[in-house]
From TrEMBL:
Residue ranges annotated for the DUF6460 domain, each copy included: 63-97
One Pfam family here: DUF6460
Domain of life: Bacteria
Name of this chain's protein: DUF6460 domain-containing protein
Key words of the record: Membrane, Transmembrane, Transmembrane helix
TM spans (from-to): 27-47, 74-95
Amino acid sequence: MPNDDTRNLRASHDSLSRFLGGSPLAVAFRLILLSTLVGVMLAAIGFDPWNIVQSIRLLVERVWDLGFDAINGLWRYFLLGAVIVIPIWLLSRLFGAPRGR
């Protein structure tokens, strides 16, 4: 029969897993992978992790210099991404949401 220390340790581990959304190692792996993928995408548009404010300012300046064709390009990227993101989000909300309250 487990003692009080074992139960407290198990309860704190369950609380941590519930807070993180899974086991700490699995969550760390997913965060590392996602951070790397997002970093690659941000690097492709010219962001620099050591000077993020300057990178954002330069990005806005480049978009402004390109004129309204840049807005058209951003709109196309948005639509292209939305074709994938919105259905996945909708399916995750329909099938992943808890039933009833």
